[in-house]
Each structure stands twice: as C-alpha cells, then as structure tokens.
Amino acid sequence: MQRIPIKLAKADMVLAKDAITPEGQVLCGAGTKLTEELISRLRRQGVLVLSVKGHPVRMPGECSLAQKLKELDKRFSKVGNDPVLRALKHLIGEYWVIEEKGPEFLEKLKKEAKH
Amino acid sequence: MDKAEIKKRLKEIQSLPTLPPIVSKLNEMVADEDITAVKLGKVIEKDQVLTSKLLKMVNSSFFGFPQRISTVSNAIVLLGFNVIKTLIVTSSIFEVMQASDVGLFEHSLGCATACGIIAKRRGIKNPEEVSTAGLIHDLGKIVLRSELPEEYEAIVKEAKEKGLYMREVEQERIGTGHGEIGGILARQWNLPERLVFPIEYHHKPEKAPDFKEIAAIVHFSDILIRAIGFGYGGDPWVPALDHGAWERIKLTKSQMREVIAELDEKLVELQDFTLEIKIEG
Fold first, then answer.
1. What does the DSSP 8-state code read for residue A51?
2. CA-to-CA distance for B243 and B30, rounded, in angstroms?
3. Contact B268 A5 (CB under 8 A)
4. What are the phi and psi torsion angles at A19 (to 5°)?
5. CA–CA separation, B66 vs A68, rounded Å?
C-alpha cells in the first residue's frame, strides 16, 4: 500500500483504503479502480490523499525500504545509546516495514531475528 | 569575523526588509482594546499578496483544520492573533527559504506538523501556536544563512566534513547557536514569549524560563521529524533528547505508534503542499 497526494493519482490504480474527504466522509471504498473522471471528482470533493495498492509512485528522492532503514540507522548514529531514541528508531522502522510489506512480513522478520 | 562583530551584525538585523510595515500597524491596532478580528482582517486583506500567502499557510495541512478558512478575520478567530502575526512577520523569510533551501523549509513544515499533533494530544489550549513555534524554530539558521552567508557556508561545510551537529560548529565558530540567534530576532519582532522561548531553547527546553511544555514539544518534534528524515535541517543527525523534557511530554510505545502514523499521513498531504509551491515557483 502507498499513500500518495491525489495530484499523482492515475487511472487504473486501485484504492487500498476508502477515499475520504478531510471532514471524514467516505466517498468510495477500498478496491475501487480509479478512472480519470473519478480522480477529478474526488479532487473536487476536497480529497487530498489516496491510499493505493502496491507501490506505483516513486516519490522524488524516495528509495527502497532496505535503503530507507539503512539511512534511518545512520541518522541515529550519534544517539544510539539513548534508550528512548533507540525505541523511537525501532518504532519508525517497524512502521515502514508494515506500510510497505504488511504486518505478516514484520512478524516473519522478528521470528527470523530470534533464531 | 570575530564574535563581537557577529553579535553586532545580528543586532542590526532589525533594519532588514524582512519585517513588512503592516506589522507595526497591526501591533498598534492590537494595543487598542476595542479592536476586533474583523477590523484587523480588513487591514490585512488590503494587501492581496500577503492575504493569499496567509490563507495558503493557514489552510495547509500542518494546522489541520477540517474546513477551509477563506477570510483573514476567520483565520484570526480560529488561530489567534499571535499565530497570524507570526505568519505575517515570517512570510518574507519563508519565501526566501522556499527558494534557497527547500530542505530546511520542509523540515520546518514537518516539525510544525509534529508539534500540532503532539500539542493536540496533550490538550493544549491553542495547538496552532505550538505548530507555529515549530514552524519557526530554526529561524536562527535562516538568519545566519541570509546575514552571514560565508560564515553559514563554512559552518555547514565543517559540520559535514567532521560529521558534527551544526550547532556544535556554530558554538565553536561564532560563540552562539541558531536557537539563541532565532530568539534574539523573535524578541526584536515582539513575538510573545510563548513563541520566543521555544525557539530559543529548542535544544535545551528545560532551561527555558517559562513555557517549558511548549519548548519540550518543539524539542521532541524536531527530533521526530529528523528521525523520520523528512526535509533537511542542515545536518542529517537526530539531536540528543533532553530527558527532563521527555518526562514532561512522554508517550508510551503505542501512543508513539499512533503519532508516527498520524504524522506520516499528514506528511503526504504536506508533500502535496510543497509540490504545489515548487511547481508555482
């Protein structure tokens, strides 16, 4: 699943979550295949962000999950001994793994790490 | 350039064209007790460019108002005069920053967003004020960049080469840090102390004479947004955490997960906002 600004949405992408207005009103459901017309209608209703299946858009400067996790590690290199910040780092890493690969994948990783 | 010279230069910043003349007029008006948001809004709305910039900022996702704010007086009622005034004072600075340092601009917007999320969770009365403090927490860096460009470049270069925090190099080279510099300027602009202290003390929030909670939120939001890696604050390192400040505002692991998820969602919206700015130039 990937969250993208609606500006970058294209026809044939499939919604992974309901499309909602900033006020919280659901406009169309998960699983809907987007069309150009639907996208412009959603935009007119004030939708800013869509969650779509897969990872169809490379954002500027975006890199692979493995690369992201490596850089996360590097950013924390000066504060690696702080227990609070170490926990923060793990939570961010876990969040990214779940977002891109799903919760099952994270469980698998954790099991592998234990062995 | 020696340290005394640098201090002198910073004192003179007041005379820069960064402070729109409308601000002193607004300050006078606010001193008048009978003033209303509608009257203030009317004065601001005479300046169409400023108005459109202002409305764009107040409608951006880091304040997170569900409904669109379409008039300045409405914005004053919803966000408070402190926030509007700060946005006006800093509007030209942000314009410079958008053009010259998109990374720092995104870092500032991201920090503002995180501040708003945490402030709302803590039930702070005017969370938009905390967002605004986050938005301008690195004011000192912008000032350094525009006022002492050679010194700024040397600081960035040295920090990069030696793998240091920018503020370590600032301290060593100019005897003060971007927090203090931002504080000096914010004070010269007569911003309220609830905004001045969090800027000045965002790296040592427990030393703030007052508004320690807001300072703690800005401090942690700066850490959080750097940890996630959104924008670029001059060096790539996650700053050290002040544990006194953390005790004030600490989150459990599950709360932290919620904050990360909420922030991530908002950052995507923010990207939309910065993309728009980049496209419009």
1. E
2. 38
3. yes
4. -85, 120
5. 32
Return d(Cα B275, Cα B281) in angstroms, integer: 10
ipTM of model over 0.85: yes
On whether any CB of chain A is under 8 Å from the CB of B99, the answer is no
Domains and CATH numbers, chain A: 2-52 (3.90.105.10), 65-114 (no CATH)
> Which candidate in A2, A92, A100, A106 is best for mutational testing of the B interface (most B CBs within 10 A)?
A92
Strand spans (E) along chain B:
none
Of residues B236, B253, B265, nearest to A3 (C-beta): B265
* pLDDT, tens digit, 9 for 90 and up, residues B106-123: 999 999 999 999 999 999
Interval B46-103: pLDDT, tens: 888 888 888 888 888 788 787 788 899 999 998 888 899 888 888 877 777 777 788 9
pTM value is: 0.85
> Scanning the structure block, which residue is given the tokens 């390192």?
B237
What domains, with CATH codes, occur in chain B? Answer: 3-280 (1.10.3210.10)
Cβ neighbours, 10 Å, residue B155: 27
Highest mean pLDDT among A99-108, B56-65, B113-122, B134-143: B113-122
Interface touch A72/B229, C-beta < 8 Å: yes
Q: Are the C-beta atoms of B69 and B75 separated by less than 8 Å? A: yes
Instruction: Please give the full DSSP string across B60-93, using - where no structure is assigned.
Output: STTT--SSPP-SHHHHHHHH-HHHHHHHHHHHHH
Torsion of CA B157, B162, B163, B167, to 10 degrees: -60
User: CA nearest A52: which of A28, A21, A23?
Assistant: A28
Q: Are A82 and A70 contacting, i.e. CB atoms less than 8 angstroms apart?
A: no
Tally Cβ neighbours within 10 Å of residue A104: 9
